[in-house]
Amino acid sequence: MLSLDSLIINFDKSLRTLFNEAHSIRPFPDADLPDAALDENEKKLAAALMRVNHSGEICAQALYQGQALTARDAVLKEQLQQTANEETEHLAWTSRRVHELGGHLSVLNPIWYANSLAIGAFAGLLGNKWNLGFMAETERQVGAHLQSHLGKLPEQDIKSRTVVQQMLTDETRHGEFAVQLGGAELPLPIRHVMQVSAKVMTQTAYWV
Prior knowledge:
The mean pLDDT is 88. It contains seven helices and no strands. It has 208 residues and is mostly helical. The longest helix is centred in the N-terminal third of the chain and has 31 residues, at 40-70. The chain is 75% helix and 0% strand.
């Protein structure tokens, strides 16, 4: 049974995730790197890809908050909350890079957030192994997505590439940790639905 305090805290987290500027405890990965000379097309491409990455982190933040909200195990709940905190740093990194490139964040982020929060809350109700399984599969798909962006970003855009590479390192670690804690492999139909949902989000956020 969810307490009123828990619901209020998570509602506050939702508002801060969507409408407040995210902050990073760690230094920004690209802090000491110079901006490369990019033409307008390269800037638009990089900004669009980083906007997609920002929306992906909105989804990850909501997913883990939802999972933590309904998780029954106190240790797992704490781990999910810690992971969500690290995803907040990714929000800060990608948001700043989008704006540096002259782009804008997706106007549909509240929709992505609400959808992912609901999925996360449902996963949390299924028990530890499936909750962790969702975490592991999410990180695997995000990692594949980030890897593809490293192949699409302009070679000379070292700042964006450095941010994406550090995100990939973090996501890989999160996924491996979920497996070590006993995360179960999700059934193929569920993995497929997750892939389709992610594709809809990434293709839409690229433009909007």
